[in-house]
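Please, structure for the following, as tokens.
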Amino acid sequence: MTSTSHRDASRTGEALYSLQGLWCTSCALAVEAQLMRLSGVVAASVHYPSATLLVQGQPDALEETRLAAAVRRLGYCLGPPEAMGDAQARLEAESRYLTLRLLTAIAFGMWTMIASLLIYVGAMPSSRLELVMAWVSGAFALPVVTYVALPFYRAGWRTLRAWRPGMDALVSLGALTAVGVSLWLLSQGSPEVYFDTAVMLVSLLLAGRLVETLCRHRGLRALQALYEPSTEVQRWEQGDWHTRPLEAVTVGDRVRVEGGEALPLDGMLCDDEALLDLSPLTGESAPRRCLAGDPIAAGCRNLGATLVLEVTAPAGECRLDRLREQMWWQQARKGELQRLADRFAGWLSPVAVVLALLTLAATWLAGVPAEEAWVRALSVLVVACPCAVGLAIPLAGLAASGQALEHGVVVRDPSVFEVLATVRSVAFDKTGTLTPGEPEVLAVRPAHGYREVDILALAASAAQGSGHPLARAVCRHARDAGVDRSEEVAEAEEFGGRGRRVDLADGRPLLLGSRAWLAGKGIDVDGLEEAGASEVLLACGGSWIGHFRLGEAALPGTAATLARLRRQGLVLALISGDGAQAVRRLGEAVGLRPAECYAGRSPEAKAQLLAAMPQPSLYVGDGLNDMLGLATASVGVAPLGASSTVQEGASVALMRPGVSGVENALDLARRTRRVMRQNLLLSGIYNLLALGLAVAMPIPPWVAVLAMAASSLSVVANSARLAWSDEGTVERQEAPPAEALGTAP
């Protein structure tokens, strides 16, 4: 699948690209610094775990050729955002690349370490043999400090050219200094060499880099798990079904999906009905029955007989494609904690170089032997590597995004986790958010002399094929009651949202519609009690024979979710444009107080209420009238089934029915922010203490290597707790019955 358009500079002043050749977070900072020097570029942000670049600025400054030329001068490649398969292949290639070098480092470094150990423990019987063993140690270290360490040297040079030296520059300088000191000692006839330090430095950093890559790989697999379409489909053309590539299918084509297969594209159901498993898309445990004309989404699985759908979105433009693209787009943005980490890593490297030089000069002037002075300076360089600082925030954000996906929550902007963790108020729209979005039959009243089963059979015949929500609700209710359409229809006519006339094959006319429409057709409805809510009447032979009362019920689990949110100290509100009676009834059903329910609110009034609520605020809405509210709130959330415009404008999207995903997102955000702070604090404390100790006292370089690698691995392990732990993010919802949801997403 190809990636979709990656820039719309004339509208947004932003462009998203993919970077090839990044080796570490220092590379990302170097690219940012290089691009910020270009005229017209306001901001440049690189998300290292996903290798994405977000550039903001004047439209003419965002041209790919101009940016690519600037990036190429540092040795990196810039291109359009990667498709999911390309990103997966890139990380697999990086994993193989790192594994090969790590195995080489282990194979040769092992003998380097053995030779050095024999010297350290005094196992050699003479100084001459110790000197020979020192040369052996250097010989086995040669492949490691050349072939294996070459990526460090390359990246270090690139970051130096951008005047943003980081981890790779320090690693390169440390390894080369260790080799240089060792060669100088050998030339003086001393066997006290430090080839093992250079080997350990390179090997342990490679091991840490491989773990980082595997973590990034896992995050991508979580994204890919959303949807893996087939490469070929059955398309109707020239009176028969033909196998065609997925990319050849266009809007309006008809595609056949066999039983047990996943839907390859978004579309509308052409058959009378179909049974779909939405668990790959929404996590629903119960299958959903969809009717003719229902929109159905790619990724759902057909559990029934062969179905036919009319394509509404081609490959690359389906709902899940857009969600994935928006996630990649937003991942390049940086939150407050990430910017703080970048600033810390940016000044740490120059400070470390200055401290190393000062340590070298001070110890030398103090009368310390030259080789010991160089070793002290080498230790300062090694412990200062800011790898852990640079990874502290991105890895936590990526791990949290993958964990959120597994629980049906799409967080398009990882920096939103920082805002979500501090949310103080939560507001909800009504229809389509706390309710299924379509009415359901609450009661059926047959006329005297009729049985309910007979009324349902006739109503199902009259409602079949109608697109009106109330008629569809009647049809669903009849099917749920086990009543199928049994009367053959000779002719049907729809009257623009007012009602429907159906002539049965036996000559009986049926009228299904509103009270006013039936009255206009001469049906006596004066003696029929008002329902006080939505209603549908069925008439036959000049009189009404059935009365259906309809309304909206809250999605299962809503009341329990809101109660838990209230116990967390959050301010809750229900803000709707619906009438006061419907809003009050729903508020009571979900446990909201009358003062927390606001009815008849326009989009502008919704925004004013949200602005007046305790900040930061969160708003959940699904319709176009909620767009202003979503933009006003600190965090906008689109529920399952929201319009495409709402999905594109919201920071968070729920992939499962109900609002329990809001609670999951808040819980995960608090854990993520806590892990981010822990990562930043631990890595910062390590670097500051290690630098102080290395300057104040002699620390063997190999000890500095172990400490630096342990710091990086601790950040990775702490972030991995988010990806592999379900603490605080549990399934709290019950899947509602299929018919309660109305239509497929």
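The CA atoms of residues 178 and 208 lie 20 Å apart. Confidence is low (pLDDT under 50) at residues 1-11, 282-286, 727-745.
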